[in-house]
Amino acid sequence: MQTLFRSEQGGHEQVVLCQDRRSGLKAVIAIHSTALGPALGGTRFHAYADHSLPEEAATLDALNLARGMSYKNAMAGLEHGGGKAVIIGDPDVLKSEELLLAYGRFISSLGGRYVTACDVGTYVQDMDVVARECRWTTGRSPENGGAGDSSVLTSFGVFQGMRASAQRLWGAPTLRGRTVGVAGVGKVGRLLVDLLIEDGAEVVVTDVRGESVDRVRASHPQVTVAASTEALIRTEGLDVYAPCALGGALDDATVPVLTAKAVCGAANNQLAHPGVEKDLADRGILYAPDYVVNAGGVIQVADELNGFDFARAKEKATKIYDTTLEIFERAAGDGVPPAVAADRIAEQRMAAARG
């Protein structure tokens, strides 16, 4: 496999390409940094069917996601660096016990430099299988000593970031009476909708999967459904836009037509390229950095490594509110977008750990 490593994706400590012909496993494990401790990040299982070179697309995805995990873990105050893995293929077709066990053996061969968990396309039950071959696995089921679904605290953390955004914009930490658009109502987005409705927000949702929208509507019939993400971001009166699907949600096409006054969502790598954060700031749109507000899940799985205590993990995830406010204040003081302010704080913490 030949992969183009771009300069903006550099600085990684290690990239491992994995293949097990018997099970059909092809995977990429990227370790960005271990300055703060063993790299921690989930395993994505994705086909990249829309790319002519899926192996290259997966590698670039893993590199970007691993770097994001370094910054996320640093901002969350965890003693972990950043890593990420991608298993290439359609999980509905390729996923098997044999493949997951083979994958676990590859992680184990790294000797603890990388600790894995769930991500898009992988679930708690998958981590239980991986753990049979690898003790550096978290995000496991409660019956196997794990914390269970990390979506619970991921959505809770995003909600805390959204409360901080509301405080910054409107002077009160609540979404009551505000209109929030949620793009992607799968594992995390659906739980975020629950929190928003409970807080008194008006919610508009969209998802490429009709069944996901149907589940939300079954619980909350008052929710409005947009025909597409393109329609959602143009919704009149939208106060907050929450991208909760895959990355790259904020790009040169979406930012100019975005009606929301703030962006705060669960998706990783929401900024499609450098410079989008400035475009948002120039339009007066407050951006809550994705890796800060969606850190609840990694806080949960990191806590599991020490014997999971939900109350302890939730208390730490609650601090995402304070961290987000700190970033907004730092950004205003330095005259930079919040994404730049967050990067600076994370980089300072990693540099201090390196000594």
Automatic annotation (TrEMBL):
Q: What class of enzyme is it?
A: oxidoreductase
Pathway(s): Amino-acid degradation; L-valine degradation
- Protein's organism: Streptomyces tardus
Q: Which residues bind NAD(+)?
A: G184, V185, G186, K187, V188, G189
Q: Assembly and partners?
A: Homodimer.
UniProt keywords, alphabetically: Branched-chain amino acid catabolism, Cytoplasm, NAD, Nucleotide-binding, Oxidoreductase
* Catalytic residues identified in the record: K84
GO terms, molecular function: nucleotide binding; valine dehydrogenase (NAD+) activity
Query: What is the name listed in the Swiss-Prot or TrEMBL entry for this protein?
Result: Valine dehydrogenase
* Superkingdom in the source lineage: Bacteria
Q: Which InterPro entries match?
A: Aminoacid_DH-like_N_sf (IPR046346), Glu/Leu/Phe/Val/Trp_DH (IPR006095), Glu/Leu/Phe/Val/Trp_DH_C (IPR006096), Glu/Leu/Phe/Val/Trp_DH_dimer (IPR006097), Glu/Leu/Phe/Val_DH_AS (IPR033524), Glu/Phe/Leu/Val/Trp_DH_bac/arc (IPR016211), NAD(P)-bd_dom_sf (IPR036291)
Which is an annotated Pfam family here? ELFV_dehydrog
The family assignment reads: Belongs to the Glu/Leu/Phe/Val dehydrogenases family.
PANTHER family with a match to the protein in the record: LEUCINE DEHYDROGENASE (PTHR42722), VALINE DEHYDROGENASE (PTHR42722:SF1)
**Which parts of the sequence belong to the Glutamate/phenylalanine/leucine/valine/L-tryptophan dehydrogenase C-terminal domain?**
148-355
Q: Name one GO biological process term.
A: branched-chain amino acid catabolic process
| Subcellular localization | Cytoplasm
Q: What is its EC number?
A: 1.4.1.23
Record GO cellular component, one term: cytoplasm
Write down the PROSITE patterns for this protein, in alphabetical order: GLFV_DEHYDROGENASE
Catalysed reaction(s) here are:
L-valine + NAD(+) + H2O = 3-methyl-2-oxobutanoate + NH4(+) + NADH + H(+)
